[in-house]
Protein: ABC transporter substrate-binding protein
Organism: Metapseudomonas boanensis
Amino acid sequence: MNNYKKILLAAAATLALGTSAVAADKLKIGTEGAYPPFNLIDASGKPGGFDVDIAQALCAQMKVECEVVTSDWDGIIPALNAKKFDAIVASMSITDERKQAVDFTTPYYTNKLQYIAPKATDFKTDKASLKGKVIGAQRATIAGTWLEDNMSDVVDIKFYDTQENAYLDLASGRLDGVLADKFVNWEWLKSDAGKDFEFKGDPVFDNDKIGVAVRKGDPLREKLDAALQAIVADGTYQKINAKYFPFSIY
């Protein structure tokens, strides 16, 4: 009986190792799919954008298969911790609050927060001038948090489930302005919908570090950091950067 139990245990251990080996050959990446040009759903219905290209490059460097799936922004960290995917590559700002729930790699780009508003309006960004204005931001973002911390006593803040919905309300005149990541705003301003809008004032926050998020204590973080250093060193990162921006965001 004891020998039989040993055989069963050995078989179970072998099966577990086999499962682990298969899992190690594949990385499942979570992104939002609604934050162009960083992450979006392309014409073929698949996730695309800067974040997705970076994720694919990191996987290639690590020699693992890459599967990219989408998640609503509000639930993306809970989904990671529920093991629905292995890492988040979704232009997520590294904040102390998020560090309580996940670990981050070193930053893979740095962003800024800046207002946009109609070209025809006199839109000054000091606190006194913004009094009474309606400002939009995506919920659970660093832009939304900055507005709450710094402007909630003078402006009416409207939160949106996606950045695209904030732009829709700005274009339709239901908002006086939007605060968001500069590079995301830059992309929208180039579109037909954004042609009558422009940046207003200087960036209000210019040290927004963006990282890849993994579960707390996951050794995947170190592997992703090494892969990031490698794609920066060999020029892969710069090629992806140039595909989306005529300037470096690293």
Q: What stands out?
A: Confidence is low (pLDDT under 50) at residues 1-22.
